[in-house]
Amino acid sequence: MNKFIKQVINFLLIIVIYCTFTGGFNYYHAFIKQLKFEQTNILIAGDSHTQKALNPSLFKSARNVSQPAEPYVITYWKLNRIFKSNIPDTLILAFTHHSISGFNDIKFSTNKWAAKEMFNRSYSIERFAEIQNDVKIDWHLKNIIKLKNILLFPKTNHHSNFIGKGYNNFSKSDINDFKTAINRHFYNNDSIYSFSKTSIEYLNKIIHLCNEKNVKIILVSPPVHEKYFNLIPDIYLKKFDSLKTSFKNQQISVFDQSDISLPESMYLNSDHLNSEGAVFFTSKVKDYIQD
Amino acid sequence: MIFNSLEFAIFLPLIFFLYWFVFNKSLKAQNILLVVSSYVFYGWWDWRFLSLILFSTLVDYSIGLQLRKEEVKTKRKVLLWTSILVNLGFLGFFKYFNFFLDNFKQAFTFFGYQIDGYSLNIILPVGISFYTFQTLSYTIDVYKRKLEPSKDFISFTAFVSFFPQLVAGPIERAVNLLPQFYKKRTFNYTKAVNGLRQILWGLFKKVVIADNCAVVVNKIFANYENYNGSTLILGAVFFAFQIYGDFSGYSDIAIGTSRLFGFDLMKNFNFPYFSRDIAEFWRRWHISLSTWFRDYLYIPLGGSKGGTWMKVRNTFIIFLVSGFWHGANWTFIIWGGLNALYFLPLLLTKRNRKNTDEISKGRILPSVKDSVSILFTFAITVLAWIFFRADTVDHALNYLANILSYDLFSLPQIAPYKTLGLLFVFLTIEWLGRNNNFAIEKFGERWYKPLRWATYYLLIFSIFYFAGDQQEFIYFQF
């Protein structure tokens, strides 16, 4: 028995030493080390809609840190981290009808792909304990992903997970996915998702954070194809409009272009602009900022 | 509690420590510890079902004691049937009640009668089919006087609820496992190290192979209408590896864990996908269930002693019952029936015991003849797995129809290169270790220790690195 225990301890000791080394190294790079982030005047954040619609190279000094499917919760954690080292003049934030959909609440549990992706991006900035009462979280998956990122390999690029690759787009166009996109964003089987209280709460938190840091915030809704727009459930149109009014009353700029008509050639798919559309929309946003 | 969980990673060393260092003075204390830990292990899912296991234990223990005293044949028979009815009664209620009700309703509707009856919202207790069969084997063996009835309630309770194999087998025979609870266990270094090695390999099979295959399989089976024939074949082949990795991985962890406590469980899988015919496949797949049916159903029915008709009838009975054992769904019955059909030509031509020797003995690669036989056996097995995996018979038939669509010979629409690479490595290791109890039993045995350990570290690393989405063990539902 003694020999067995000794061998097991020796075997595990090597693992413990390795994990202590990688864990310490990664902990420093993920949580302590200051974020390397070039100073920019304009920061663009949000989900794939702003990622595709706003080309930062067309601004004087801008950076797009939007990532596909990103809910406000993660955007808030991300901005908190970025603002510790870099405070821009202006934050352009995606504000679309589906940004407030209950669809955002299932991204940390039910939808395995999304959960994996969200946990992978947010492990170094997350505060899931804060939202655990309102949103279902797959804790097992979250912990596994965090441990995998911290203990397996020593690496230095942890921050790139939540910063993302920024703007990228294509010139192709196919808007035939409008029904699928609508179903994904607003419907849970046949019933309409209720609004995401957490998303609305975190949108307000982002606004509050910007006020605190003296950052001007502009909420933007990039154009979506009319086939998509016409299928957005009424309750979402109304809720969106009421939030828009409320924000405007608080002197927050809202640039809503969701229902403008653009040629089909400017859409990547029914709810995203392609590179040509991005050029058009970026110039409109630039004009709006200058005004 | 599942084996690939943090809870179990804490539970196992804790029980191991208590077992060998705190309770090691007395056999009874060790057995009590095993009972308590087994009930904690099972109760982790749903403590309410512990009463079922306890009730089953009490019934079979009491009947065993009665059978010890009773000499009158009819009374002994009554006792035996009481045990069978109680055990199968629970199984029937929890597993098959809704199935029979729905089918009766459908049958009556077919003949123009409407009958009322409401399906019940019944939760299936985890592993009920496994422990029911294990306790049944005890009563039957005691009845047949192959086994002395247990007078030690603690040992008997530990035998029924032994946590490593409680929820998904191997389904142990009382003759093999129960006496191990009577004897003082002594720690055996080689056995324990071997146990750890088997646990490691089981985890690799489950977490790396089965769970990664499951991601592809779930996607393809859920949207089979949208995929071409070659993608559907890929889905079915991946399911074959998913279920093998999942179930044999569980068995490996169960056997390995038992070894740490000084117990020997029976082998449950013997590299079934290297089988050269379907008879050999069934000697290598879920051995504890196949031999259970052989001993307690096939042989009592007359086995292969009678004429051709008798052999065919008995073969179909055990395959159909085996299918039904897996679940209350026609898909499982058809799966069993298909396997019986595969088996039939071998039985009728008396070639069912042709391949009992080692596969490609002494060769690194199989001969052309062996390769063809192995591939053919695997292909027909995969075909049957489609029924096993499908939700309904219609689902399976449509899946098969879509395989035979015009685009069967086009490239698959999904290219899971990572999983294919993992499968290649896995099959290579399994092939090289095919003559052992499990693939890595003797892997690197003569290597320099640091190199051998490096291999184990690599396996542990790959378990974490390639871990797919955690999936329930498939056989828990049975």
UniProtKB/TrEMBL annotation, chain A:
InterPro entries: SGNH_hydro_sf. Gene3D superfamilies: SGNH hydrolase. It comes from the Bacteria. Keywords: Membrane, Transmembrane, Transmembrane helix. The chain crosses the membrane at residues 7-28. This is DUF1574 domain-containing protein. It comes from Mangrovivirga halotolerans.
Automatic annotation (TrEMBL), chain B:
Its main location: membrane. Keywords: Acyltransferase, Cell membrane, Membrane, Transferase, Transmembrane, Transmembrane helix. The chain crosses the membrane at residues 6-22, 51-67, 79-98, 118-140, 330-349, 370-388, 408-429, 450-468. It holds the Pfam family MBOAT. InterPro entries: Ac/AlaTfrase_AlgI/DltB, AlgI, MB_O-acyltransferase, MBOAT_fam. It is found in: Cell membrane. It is a multi-pass membrane protein. It comes from the Bacteria. PANTHER family: ACYLTRANSFERASE, PROTEIN-CYSTEINE N-PALMITOYLTRANSFERASE RASP. Belongs to the membrane-bound acyltransferase family. This is MBOAT family protein. The lineage of its organism: Bacteria, Pseudomonadati, Bacteroidota, Cytophagia, Cytophagales.
